[in-house]
Amino acid sequence: MSIGRHIRINYNNYQQDSKNKYIWRSGEKNIPGEGIFQCYNHGSCIAPDVCSCRDGYSGFDCNTPLCRHKQTNGFIVGCLNGGICQSKDNCNCMSTISVLWTVQTKSKKALTGWTGTDCSIPICVQGYYDPHCKGLSAMGGEGCYRCANNGICIAPDTCRCGEGWSGFDCRNPVCTAKVTPFVRKQLMTVDKRKIEIFENDPCSMVGFYKPEVLGGVAYYRGNCTLPNQCTCLCKGVYSPSLCNEVGGIFCVKPFDDPLKFFRNLLAPNKLFGSRQCHSGYEGLLDESGRFISCHMEIYEPSYFVRHTLGFILSFVIMSLSIACYFIYSRSKIGEHYALKHMRQRKSKKEPITSPRTSSFLYPVSDYGEDGKFHRD
Question: What confidence tens digit (pLDDT) does each residue in 156-174 have?
Answer without folding.
Answer: 999 999 999 999 999 999 9
